[in-house]
Write a structure and sequence with these properties.
Blueprint: H1 2-19, H2 30-48, H3 54-68, H4 78-88, H5 93-103, E1 109-110, H6 114-136, H7 143-161, H8 163-168, E2 171-172, H9 176-182, H10 191-211, H11 223-242, H12 256-267
Parallel strand pairs: 1-2
Helix pairs in contact: 1-2, 1-4, 2-4, 2-5, 3-5, 5-6, 6-7, 7-10, 7-11, 9-10, 10-11, 11-12
Length: 269
Amino acid sequence: MEHALKASYAFSRRIARTRARNFYYSREQRDAMCAIYAFMRYCDDISEGEGASSEAIERWRCDLDLALKGHYGENALWPAFHDTVERYRIPHEYFHEMIAGVSSDLRPKQLQTFDELYRYCYQVASVVGLTIIHIFGFESPDALPLAEKCGIAFQLTNILRDVREDRENGRIYIPKEDICKFGADLAQHDERFVKLMSFEAQRARAYYDESRPLIDLVHRRSRPSLWALIEIYRRLLAHIERSNFDVLAKHIRVPTWEKLSILASAALK
C-alpha cells in the first residue's frame, strides 16, 4: 500500500510538472498540490478532449465517489488524491463542484448575467482556492470567503486572456448584459471592445484587492507560496491591460523570467 501511494504521488508530480504552468510553482505541501492539480487536469481533459461526453463525465464522477471511499480502480491518481483529501480534511463537495463546472463546458454557451458568470467561476476556480487553503492551513473562517473571491479573480483573468479561443469553441463567458451595454463585438478589437474588457478587468482587479487579506490568514510557512500564486495572476491581468486587451491577436502570458523573479521575491518573504 505504501509503495502504491508513493507511486501515485510520483504520477501526480509528473502531471503537474509537464502540464501546469502557474500551479507547480508552489513550494510547500507540494505533493498534495500536485495530487489536486492532477485531479483538475483530468477534469479538464475529460470535458475538452476527443472523448468528451456527458457519459465520460458521469463515469469520472462515479470514480471520484469510489476514490473518496478508498476504492481506487486502475487510475494511478487516486491513492495520492484520497490521501491528500483525508490528510487535509478537504470537503468532498468541492470536487463535485469542479466536475459540475467543467461538465457545463460540454455544450456551447453564452452566459447572460454576471450572476451566471460568478457561479461558473466559483465552480471551476473558487473551489480550487478553497481546496488549496485547506492544504496551506488556516484557522480563521474568514479565510473561506476570501479564497472564494481569489478564485473569482483568477478565473476572470483567464476568461479575459482566452476570449478568442473560447469564442471559437462556442463558449462566451463575458455576460451578454455587459456585451450589450458596451455594444461590443468579441471578434473585433475596437474602442467598444476595449471598454468592455476594461470594465471586466476592473471587476477582476476588485476581487484581487478584496481577497488580499487571505495571505495573512493562511499558516505562515504557506504565505510565500500563496503570495506567488496570486502575484503571477495579478501580473497576467496587468499584461492583458498593458496590451490594450490585444487578446484577439495573441495569447498573452507572464514570461518565465518574470515568474522566476516572483518566486525569488517570495523566497525572501
